[in-house]
């Protein structure tokens, strides 16, 4: 039996590894023939089971390989999922940042909408006030109309009375008319644009008062062109004819034509200041008559300051030029004006002067015509101003800008200066702007924005050099850099600086410096802890640097913040 058992074990192993029937075919020896048939049956059964187990093990090995490959795929998918998760986290962070930016943008839009809403309400109130004023004007106009009708009726009745009574009544009527005319002039608006804003749509002649009602010169008669956009205010003059003949003369500027307007210069300047834009058209027609010959100016116009000008188009130039010269389309491309070609054919140079600081044209000068075939004439349009000048900021920059904005009341006003300050000045609006008393300085001034800081330390400092600070309680204007310990003046002015610190039983030397120069020093020596400090007033220029410099010792501090460096703007 022991031999049979060994044979069974061998058969099992062989069938498991290789397949018993294929690798080790069994041939029983004479010894096995002596075994009984029962053992042979058992051996066959065992061999069959061993072969079955081998097949199962082979299938398990295949399945194990598949599982290994599946496991590797799962690992790769897990790595991909990790990367996807990391990308998703980065995307979430980006979305958070975008959300914060959208929130800030929403708040900005909300504030802008609130500002627009406030501006709309202001405009609404202003329109309501203008509507009320228009109704009042209409009532006054109706009263004037009824008053005139009543006066006419009285006049017809007075014709039936005696001569003396008629004379008395006529005088009374004249006085009444003068009063009504004066009343009408007192409420004259500044420009035609104001009439349009009040609902007037008919083009015609009106009285306007550019320098303000009851101030300066009397109202002036102008033509309001309601068809243009914006509305035009036109001031006429005594040379409005088309093709005014120039009497030939040889010398430059020998022909002179002074221009007299239907308004005073003060009122025209006020109109220019009140308007969005102003212009004046001029045309020079010629036959062999040049505006300029070589370096000689034969013709020019004079501005409101009495200065000769030789540009005939645009907003200003120090050189002689015409419209075609600016557009580079003159008859002769080498010249600046058509008429400078001195052609025997008729030519013309037309332009529009838009320099508001030079208008109106006060005089025209022509010359350089000494030959019989030379001819020339000109056409000068009226002073045309359009629209309404934009309102100046609050506060304005000068009494002049206040007047342009419509403030014509004499008194003390705040005006903005460069360098970040507001000055109190006396504006005498009843004077000309060229009068030295028009704007009088008072010497009083205030800053238009604050500069304050309070820097501190919460730990000791013993490094020789500029003292650095760990933070600021207040830093309005952001002029103090606590990290570097340096204050940089944002604009000129007088500043105050105060330093407080705690010494710790040793010799200390601390300096206040401006641009590296020592201007103040604090020195202490002793046995005990004690507070020390220094204060100073400095006149600083924009960009000047002020810092605390530790020369010797130590500045002691802790969470109680014993070290403070304070500064603020006193006077701009």
Automatic annotation (TrEMBL):
Keywords: Coiled coil, Secreted, Signal. GO terms for cellular component: extracellular space. Residues 444-572 form the C1q domain. It is found in: Secreted. InterPro entries: C1q_dom, Cerebellin_Synaptic_Org, Tumour_necrosis_fac-like_dom. PROSITE patterns: C1Q. Residues 71-140 form a coiled coil. Pfam families: C1q. It comes from the Eukaryota. This is C1q domain-containing protein. It comes from Darwinula stevensoni.
């Amino acid at each position: 039996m022991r031999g049979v058992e060994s044979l069974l074990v061998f058969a099992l192993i062989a069938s498991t590894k290789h397949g018993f029937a294929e690798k080790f075919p069994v041939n029983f020896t004479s010894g096995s023939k002596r075994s009984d048939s029962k053992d042979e049956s058992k051996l066959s059964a065992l061999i069959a089971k061993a072969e079955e187990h081998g097949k199962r093990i082979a299938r398990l090995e295949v399945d194990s390989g598949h599982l290994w490959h599946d496991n590797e795929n799962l690992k790769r998918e897990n790595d991909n999922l990790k990367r996807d998760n990391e990308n998703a986290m980065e995307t979430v962070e980006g979305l958070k940042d975008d959300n914060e930016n959208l929130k800030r943008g929403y708040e900005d839009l909300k504030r802008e909408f609130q500002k627009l809403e406030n501006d709309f309400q202001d405009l609404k109130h202003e329109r309501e006030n203008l509507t009320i004023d228009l109704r009042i004007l209409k009532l006054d106009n109706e009263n004037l109309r009824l008053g005139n009708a009543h006066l006419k009726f009285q006049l017809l009745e007075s014709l039936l009375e005696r001569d003396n009574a008629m004379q008395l009544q006529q005088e009374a009527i004249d006085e009444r008319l003068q009063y009504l005319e004066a009343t009408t002039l007192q409420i004259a608006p500044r420009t035609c644009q104001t009439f349009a804003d009040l609902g007037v749509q008919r083009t015609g002649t009106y009285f306007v008062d550019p320098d303000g009602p009851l101030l300066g010169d009397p109202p002036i008669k102008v033509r309001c062109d309601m068809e243009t956009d914006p509305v035009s205010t036109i001031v006429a003059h005594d040379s409005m004819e088309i093709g005014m003949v120039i009497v030939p003369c040889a010398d430059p500027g020998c022909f002179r034509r002074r221009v007299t307007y239907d308004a005073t210069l003060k009122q025209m300047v006020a109109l220019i200041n009140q308007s969005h834009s102003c212009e004046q058209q001029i045309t020079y027609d010629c036959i062999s008559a040049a505006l300029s010959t070589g370096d000689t100016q034969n013709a020019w116009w004079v501005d409101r300051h009495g200065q000769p000008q030789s540009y005939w188009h645009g907003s200003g130039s120090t050189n002689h030029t015409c419209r075609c010269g600016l557009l580079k389309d003159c008859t002769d491309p080498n010249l600046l004006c058509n008429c400078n070609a001195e052609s025997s054919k008729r030519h013309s140079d037309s332009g529009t002067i838009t320099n508001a600081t030079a208008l109106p044209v006060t005089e025209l000068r022509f010359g350089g015509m000494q030959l019989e075939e030379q001819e020339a004439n000109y056409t000068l349009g009226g002073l045309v101003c359009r629209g309404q000048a934009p309102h100046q900021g609050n506060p304005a920059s000068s009494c002049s800008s206040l007047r342009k904005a419509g403030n014509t009341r004499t008194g003390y006003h705040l005006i903005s200066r460069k360098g970040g300050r507001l000055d109190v000045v006396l504006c005498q609006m009843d004077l000309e702007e060229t009068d030295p008393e028009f704007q009088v300085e008072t010497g009083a001034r205030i800053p238009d924005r604050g500069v304050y800081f309070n820097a501190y330390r919460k730990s000791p400092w013993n490094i020789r050099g500029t003292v650095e600070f760990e933070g600021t309680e207040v830093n309005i204007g952001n002029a103090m850099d606590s990290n570097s310990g340096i204050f940089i003046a944002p604009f000129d002015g007088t500043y105050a600086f105060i330093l407080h610190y705690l010494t710790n039983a040793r010799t200390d030397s601390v300096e206040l410096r401006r641009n590296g120069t020592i201007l103040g020093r604090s020195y202490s020596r002793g046995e005990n802890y004690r507070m020390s400090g220094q204060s100073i007033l400095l006149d600083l220029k924009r960009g000047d640097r002020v810092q605390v410099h530790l020369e010797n010792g130590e500045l002691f501090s802790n969470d109680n913040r014993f070290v403070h460096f304070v500064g603020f703007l006193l006077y701009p």
